[in-house]
Amino acid sequence: MASSNANPPFKEPACATFPHIPPPPGVNVNTKKNEDDADDHDDEDYSKLYTSYFRIPPNLCMHLRQLSFPAIPFVFRRRRRGFLSLMLSTRNVLVAATLLVLLGLLTLTPSQPLSLKQVYDAAPPPKFSRQFQISNKVAAIADTSFTPRHVPLLMHYSGVLGPEWPIVYYTSQETYNTYLKPGVANVSKVWTRALSEGRIQVRFLPTRFEMTSRSGVNSFLADKWMWEDLAPAKHVLIFQADAIICGNAHKTVDDFLEWDFIGATLAPEGRMYNGGLSLRNRDMVLRILNANDYQKDTAAARFKFEGEDVWYSKHMDLIGAKLPSNEVALEFACEYHFHIKAQKQPMGYHKVHKAAPSKIDEISEWCPEIHLAAPGKLGKS
User: Fold this and answer.
1) What pLDDT tens digit does each residue of the chain (381 aa) get?
2) What sign does the dihedral 14-32-36-40 (CA atoms) show?
3) The DUF5672 domain covers which part of the protein (predicted)?
4) Same domain, 341 and 293
């Protein structure tokens, strides 16, 4: 019978060539098992325990060799009658846990070795704010008389129009610094987020434009400055603070892109459209502005009615622009009593608080957002 001090026999683990995994202290890997050894069962248990700890599939052995992990800090000690005592320090526990995580990652793609660089590259990229960008379509509002309704109104427009319709908010530097600049006391966080996400952009109006009167707004919209500033868009949606697009609408603005100018009809005979909620072909607008002068035409009373929207309507009709019928125009927007009688569910409304106040309750059943579009404060002159 072998001496009790003899080194116990040792079975080579399944991954015998795995680097940095030495046999337990005092174990002679070259000693063959002696079947007559009195500690035969203890030695067999010892060998099974050792190999169970380090039985690693061959494909993982290859990956681990490539990664060159440090030695596994397990210290084995042979206890009396073949039992083992596994002594783990706090540091060893952390290293062992890290190794187990990496082994789990390796098993995800057993056919291809996974490098540490691949592990880091798999992390999700940081999110950056989307840059404001105008392409083929854009919406615009110009207003320097800020009210608390403006932010909810613009958030509503951003939602119903969608990401393909960025919004430009033209206002004064003073209005922006006082009410809309991120970081200003009591500024809306929702508004700040919309700016950072690139859904809305504030642009400052030149001081030569006076936006507190109806005549001033007409002059602004009949000037090249804004239309050139909105390049390269072809389709421009103009909306004012007293206009709304309904969330329950059966159509969207994109359903009316074929028209060069569309808005609530201004006359029963048609081919004149309100500009407070209107969709216009920017190229056609610039063509008219390059060939005509709004101020001169207004002073000469060239057309029966005043206003930039009537002026554009008449000139577009003269040059053969594609203009909708009254029926189609009322599908886009309504304003007066006879509009609402003819079209119960348009895409939107403009100035109904002044033009058809008795219809507000009826409208709100279909379009509750109408209460965001309150009457404006523009003077006549």
Assistant:
1) 444 455 555 444 444 444 444 555 554 545 444 444 444 444 444 444 444 444 455 555 555 455 444 444 443 334 444 434 444 455 565 666 677 666 665 555 444 444 444 433 444 443 434 689 999 999 999 999 999 999 999 999 999 999 999 999 999 999 999 999 998 888 999 999 999 999 999 999 999 999 999 999 999 999 999 999 999 999 999 999 999 999 999 999 999 999 999 999 998 877 899 999 999 999 999 999 999 999 999 998 888 778 999 999 999 999 999 999 999 999 999 999 999 999 999 999 999 999 999 999 999 999 999 999 987 665 444
2) negative
3) 199-350
4) yes
Which CATH number is 240's domain given? Answer: 3.90.550.10
Distance, CA of 343 to CA of 356 (rounded, Å): 14
Q: How far apart are CA 86 and CA 171, in angstroms?
A: 74
Residue 132 lies in a domain: no
Q: Mapped to the 3 state alphabet, what secondary structure does 102-119 carry?
A: HHHHHHHCCCCCCCHHHH
Distances in Å between the alpha carbon of 222 and those of 23, 52, 91, 159, 285? 89, 85, 76, 28, 9
The angle formed by the CA atoms of residues 188, 192 and 194, to the nearest 5 degrees, is 115
Q: Are 169 and 296 found together in one domain? A: yes
In a domain, 378, yes or no: no
